[in-house]
Write a structure and sequence with these properties.
The chain is α/β, with parallel strands linked by helices and 299 residues long. It has one domain: NAD(P)-binding Rossmann-like Domain (Rossmann fold), CATH 3.40.50.
């Protein structure tokens, strides 16, 4: 194991917003943190021996790798979004099989976008309906690639993660800017549900699931009190002292999305996701409400 007596955690694709947060937190807890990334100076995905060595004897590997979905869904980007997830999952699975002392648990990112657009009822792990379209195809293919591995010594957990909010969070900036420039009203009808989770809860959920050795399979990784887009934007305006915000009708969002090279699905899809399994297993959320979360991030 890396470092004498140190517990080891491996963050695959660990150089993004969530990865950096996890690296800081695990380092503070005294872990030896290994990072696999396309960026130097980290362990390269192409270095098979290096990846196996990193995983050898690890308590946990968390796979956060994948090209951002915050882009236009042209053929090239769609291919990269899909391949970046499937390839890294395959590399990790094969490396775990090659370990003498494989990691105790492998947690793979997935996404709450796997469920259909839902304004009629919430989606749980048990009775959530899988949607259709490109984003859903990515999610289902990703989970299949993950669970296709039969790993006798390594527990597998897929985290269907909602939109992650945090101080350094990439997703907060576009919303801040909308509010700042007076466009902080509803996006589209505003009735679509906004499922989110504070980054600290993502970290604590990973810790919780690491300790609960009997738990595996799929978990919805989202706060228990999702809100409408209208409620989210209202809370954000209050926090930023902007009493008024013009709404953004769908046609305007379509134009804006082209200009900033993204897709309207990111704000218009109704993600109504409830963390039923986590709550049943006794996980206590630090940030249950959007008010507490925004208070922490913005204060």
């Amino acid at each position: 194991m890396g470092g004498f007596g140190l517990k080891k955690v491996v963050l695959a694709g660990g150089t993004g917003f969530i990865g950096k947060y996890f690296e800081t937190k695990y380092s503070e807890l005294g872990y030896d943190v290994k990072i696999i990334s396309r960026k130097s100076p980290y362990i390269s995905w192409d270095d098979q021996a290096g990846v196996i060595d990193a995983l050898e004897g690890a308590e946990l590997v968390v796979n956060l790798a994948g090209k951002t979905v915050n882009c236009r869904y042209n053929e090239k980007n769609k291919r990269e979004i899909m391949n970046s997830r499937l390839t890294t999952t395959k590399i990790l699975g094969e490396a775990i099989l090659a370990c003498e002392n494989p990691p105790e648990v492998w947690m793979n990112s997935s996404t709450a976008t796997i469920y259909r657009h839902a304004e009629d009822r919430p989606m749980t792990e048990e009775d959530g309906e899988i949607g259709s379209g490109f984003s859903v195809d990515v999610a289902t293919s990703w989970e299949k690639a993950f669970f296709d591995f039969q790993l006798p010594k390594t527990r597998q957990v897929a985290l269907r993660t909602a939109i992650v909010l945090g101080k350094e969070g990439g997703v907060m900036m576009p919303y801040y800017n909308l509010v700042k420039f007076g466009l902080g009203g509803n996006q589209g009808k505003g009735t679509q549900k906004f499922s989110w989770i504070h980054i600290e809860d993502v970290f604590q959920i990973v810790r919780f699931l690491t300790e609960r050795k009997e738990l595996s399979g799929v978990f919805n990784c989202s706060a228990p009190e999702p809100v409408s887009n209208e409620k989210f934007m209202t809370e954000l305006r209050i926090m930023l002292n902007r009493p008024f915000g013009f709404p953004s009708p769908t046609w305007l969002l379509e134009i804006g999305a082209i200009l900033i090279r993204t897709e309207t699905e990111l704000v218009l899809k109704s993600r109504w996701v409830i963390p039923k399994r986590l709550e049943q297993e006794g996980y206590q959320f630090t940030y249950r409400t959007i008010h507490e979360t925004l208070q922490d991030i913005i204060a």
